[in-house]
Specification:
Length: 346
């Protein structure tokens, strides 16, 4: 908590300050501008004493090279283009972002972080060095302190699906708690009292929020928790074990709530023909949901609203950097299709 307040204070007093330049580094180090340029570009002919002075100045000023200038000198961009038939097909929020951006005459260059904290930082820092007008981020990492100087220097950032913990930035998310409560109440309304939850790794904000909401629902309903909540990485073996644990034993679950669309598919794959005997409500919709028998009942997120809202918030932040930070929670909707309406077998 003290660190969060410190970061808020830093952003409140220094937001939109000028980024330090090589001129500032040269002045701080007491060397020529050309010397700074040579150190930044890893010129081996610079003496170790000068290198140390320049690197000390870089650290003191938190200077970050502008990739555009370096690429201009080299005649390259350091970026590859890939114009493929579909990239956002598997990410409906990205699809909505692309459409909203095109309507505003903006181009989106997207990169996957693969749920990897280190890769996420590399991707985001690369975007910062290229001075993108703004960044829409689906955060994975727990520590985004490296963004404090970027935000202070004017980076426009909007988080989607989950907030950037520890930083006060614009955010648009789904109502995860209401979605889980709706799914749980729906299954209870169809006669289920032993309901299991199979979710994602709780290091992820949305996974943690949904699992916590499920535990609260089970506790309020007086249902069992032991052996009913299974969270972790989305790996076939882990999900297979979770399904086996939830449906095994003398008092198996009669219904399952899944934490996202990918997990729903894996759970149904493990159940096979037994999917007609177990009620399932999935969090997240999917094109596969209506190809099943019975079709999958889901808590659907409004991906179009999330994507378009993210672009709108980013444009507003770019136009007015000093505007109050905004956090929008988008409602979810229960789509009844059959799998969530299966009654428990007596």
């Amino acid at each position: 908590m003290p660190m969060m307040k410190l970061m808020e204070g830093m952003l409140g007093t220094t937001r939109r300050s000028r980024r330090p330049t090589m001129v500032d580094v040269a002045r701080e180090a007491g060397v020529a501008l050309r010397t700074v340029s040579r150190v930044v570009n890893n010129d081996s002919t610079v003496g170790p004493e000068l290198v140390e002075r320049v690197r000390t100045a870089i650290a003191a000023l938190d200077y970050r090279p502008d990739e555009r200038a370096r690429h201009l000198r080299l005649g390259v961009t350091g970026t590859l283009g890939a114009a493929v038939r579909q990239l956002s097909h598997v990410n409906p929020v990205l699809r909505a972002v692309e459409r909203a951006a095109r309507a505003a005459d903006l181009m989106v260059l997207a990169a996957s972080t693969e749920d990897d904290e280190l890769l996420e930082r590399q991707v985001v820092e690369s975007m910062c060095r290229r001075r993108f007008d703004g960044i829409i981020l689906e955060p994975i990492g727990a520590d985004h302190g490296y963004l404090v100087p970027e935000l202070a220097a004017g980076l426009s950032l909007v988080a989607v699906d989950r907030p950037v913990l520890g930083l006060d930035v614009d955010c648009v998310i789904s109502d995860n708690v209401a979605g889980i409560r709706t799914a749980f109440a729906h299954l209870v309304g169809h006669g289920h009292h032993r309901i299991a939850y199979i979710g994602d790794d709780e290091r992820i904000y949305t996974a943690r929020e949904r699992a916590t909401a499920f535990r609260a629902c089970a506790a309020d309903h007086g249902g069992p928790l032991d052996g009913m909540v299974h969270t972790g990485r989305i790996e076939p073996d882990r999900i297979r074990s979770a399904v086996r644990a939830a449906l095994g034993g003398p008092a198996p679950a009669t219904a399952i709530v899944t934490g996202n669309a990918t997990i729903s598919v894996e759970v149904l794959r493990r159940l096979g023909q037994d999917s007609e005997k177990v009620a399932i409500v999935g969090f997240d919709d999917s094109e596969l949901a209506t190809l099943l028998r019975p079709d999958l009942t889901v808590v659907a997120q409004d991906d179009t609203a999330i994507g378009s809202m993210a672009v709108e918030m980013l444009r507003a932040r770019i136009a007015d950097p000093g505007r109050p930070v905004d956090r929008v929670t988008v409602p979810v909707e229960l789509l009844r299709r059959g799998s969530g309406e299966i009654s428990p077998i007596a």
